[in-house]
From TrEMBL:
This is Phage-associated protein, HI1409 family. Residues 43-393 form the Anti-CBASS protein Acb1-like N-terminal domain. Pfam families: Phage_portal_3.
């Protein structure tokens, strides 16, 4: 029979491969990256409803993309104003905000285009712009309403990877009675907002799936901090007589003393007894919480100050991370929202009963110009304008560019506008950031 030492040698060859390292009992080994948790719509709804930080991550970028809306610029100012008024009647701003919220929350955001056409049509028929009479309503909805995505999977087709039709659940409720209907809808009859989709999947991927672990850790952090605060201070009663007390008596005495000494009331104790107050040590907890916040901010691509609800559109001091965030919002406006807005405006121009009657959008000059997302104080704004003007003057004086090119670059083809949107390259951003930071240091305040 083997001795105890020989048996131990059979199990432990290297102390690094003992109870914790590189075997089935190693928790680190069992933690495998890439194990995706695919959330159901019910789980996503529960996360959003329960966690205000999740609500901020979903809502704030959508609000920032649409808060200041855009300016429609064209030669006919009255037509531009009429079209913007029609968009306001349709609540287009709210619809696009909701669609972006649904895209971040569930992976897909849609806006149904309710139209009147000259001839009878089916929802599965392509929408013909030259047959439009009016645009009647815009209804935002999410992928919860979509039962099936029909996508072109032919790699040798020009429309490869594009959504062609949707099978939409059109269920309606009247009191307790529900009517279940389903319709095949052509893709041209909806505006579709989607930015995250895996190649082998049809639906977009919810942002909350990638944030799930971080949200879990944040939720655990909240609970842990709550427990620490609940027991942050406690009293210790020391007495020699405790050793002579039975367990039952000790329990009864503990309950009595806990009731008596729960507040800052007067404590009457013996000569050789002591009553002290102890606090829970919290050294290092800030670093742990900062790590959680940093991870969430990186995963959501949002600064911590924005996630926590900093006043939107305001720069305080040298907030380069907030500038970068607004730069990403601007990019999303131009690359993701602008094509959808242009499609809607084209429909309004083509429709006979909309402002201006039927107009071929390609026959006139027009453009969408997003309004500034953020602002600095008026003095800093004036100084930035002055720096830009002086720089342009140097370029013109040295023959690098012409005055007409400056006019086109700064004010566009529609002349001087009331607003000034600073949208230059990285060097411009750095120069502007330096101006803001300089004023912040000069004033000595973050306000």
């Amino acid at each position: 029979m083997l001795s105890l030492l020989e048996q131990a040698k059979q199990y432990v060859v290297d102390f690094m491969q003992g109870h914790g390292k590189a075997n089935a009992k190693d928790k680190l080994t069992r933690q495998v990256p890439g194990v995706r948790r695919k959330l159901t719509h019910a789980e996503i709804s529960a996360l959003y409803a329960d966690n205000p930080i999740v609500q901020n991550i979903v809502d704030i970028p959508a609000e920032d993309m649409t808060r200041h809306w855009f300016t429609l610029r064209m030669q006919d100012d009255k037509l531009a104003q009429d079209i913007m008024a029609r968009l306001a009647d349709l609540n287009a701003q709210g619809a696009f905000k909701k669609a972006r919220m649904y895209e971040r929350m569930r992976g897909d955001g849609f806006i149904s285009l309710g139209v009147t056409q000259k001839s009878k049509f089916e929802l599965q028929d392509p929408l013909r712009f030259d047959n439009l009479l009016s645009v009647d309503y815009l209804h935002p909805f999410s992928s919860m309403k979509v039962n099936e995505f029909l996508i072109n999977d032919d790699v040798f087709d020009g429309a490869y990877g594009k959504l062609e039709k949707l099978r939409i659940n059109r269920a309606s409720r009247s009191g307790i009675q529900a009517v279940e209907t389903e319709s095949l809808v052509h893709y041209s009859r909806v505006l579709h907002d989607q930015t995250r989709r895996l190649e082998d999947e049809e639906q977009g991927m919810s942002l909350l799936e990638t944030l799930y672990d971080a949200i879990t850790v944040l939720d655990t952090s909240l609970w842990s901090v709550g427990q620490i605060l609940h027991d942050f201070t406690f009293k210790v009663y020391a007495s020699e007589d405790v050793k002579n007390v039975s367990p039952a008596e000790k329990k009864e005495m503990s309950m009595l003393l806990d009731f008596m000494f729960r507040t800052e009331a007067l404590a009457i104790i013996g000569k050789d007894e002591s009553l002290t107050k102890q606090t829970t040590p919290v050294a290092g907890i800030k670093d742990l919480l900062d790590f959680t916040w940093d991870y969430i901010a990186a995963a959501a691509r949002m600064p911590k100050s924005v996630i926590k609800g900093q006043e939107a559109g305001t720069l305080t001091g040298a907030q380069y991370d907030v500038m970068n965030y607004y730069a990403r919002i601007t990019s999303a406006q131009e690359n993701e929202m602008k094509p959808l807005l242009e499609q809607l405006i084209r429909m309004l121009m083509w429709a006979e009963k909309e402002p201006g009657g039927r107009i071929d959008p390609d026959s006139i000059e027009w453009e969408i110009k997003f309004n500034p997302l953020w602002s600095v104080d008026s003095k800093t704004d004036a100084e930035i304008r002055k720096i830009v003007a002086e720089t342009d003057q140097i370029y013109v004086s040295n023959g690098i560019i012409t005055a007409d090119e400056v006019r086109e670059a700064r004010f566009g083809q529609f002349g001087i506008a009331d607003n000034f949107k600073f949208s230059g390259d990285d060097a411009d951003w750095q120069r502007m950031a330096g101006e803001v930071y300089g004023k912040w240091k000069e004033n000595g305040t973050h306000g």
